[in-house]
Please model this.
Amino acid sequence: MFASETRRTWPHQRLAGLEVQRFSGILRLSSMLLDTRNLRSPLAMLLFLGTTVAGLVLDLWTKWLAVQHLKPGRIIQFIPGWLHFTYTENQGAVFGLGQGQRWLFVGVSVAAIAFLTFLFLHSDRRPFYQFLLGLLLAGVLGNMYDRVVYGHVRDMIHALPGIHWPPWIARHLPVGLGSSGVFPWIFNIADSLLCVGVFLMIVYSFLHRPVEQRQEIDAQMNTDGHK
Model:
């Protein structure tokens, strides 16, 4: 009977194996980042870029109208008590946060554009998801354009200006908020696209299960059934 010989792994062999694994990981990451399937799909491009362009044009057009026809302090009561138009300039973000941080928000917008483009490239055949990405990109571009060109964001939509908190709630709110209506902030179309897009994206993420996840669940159920 022959004694079995234990195979010895030398350090340089282990290092070579690690380098191969690392190189394979880099190749997989590069393949994922350079995925161009959606760039070759007319429907995907139409949904994503079409939604982006339409949303951006609508946002910039309404901002131009506000500058032309809404003098500072003027209020147009489109639906009295429910929807008013008044022009204001916001140097911060949504809800007036981060006043004066112009270039910080520009940098965040650039990162958001890159991230949304990455998501689009890997969105596969999910038309509604691509539509939502277009909404978000339009909102990001609309407000970034204002910050780069004007140094502030042009806002003009005031929703629910005639609706106020009941006194028993208003007394517990921060100073100035309780007496200025349930929604004191003035916003624009880009803000609306971002808020609606984020909300629908959250709902979509809960309702949509990727094909791989469904296959994994089905495979697990089949495995349990054969036990």
In short: The beta strands are 75-79, 83-90, 153-159, 186-187. The chain has one domain: 41-208.
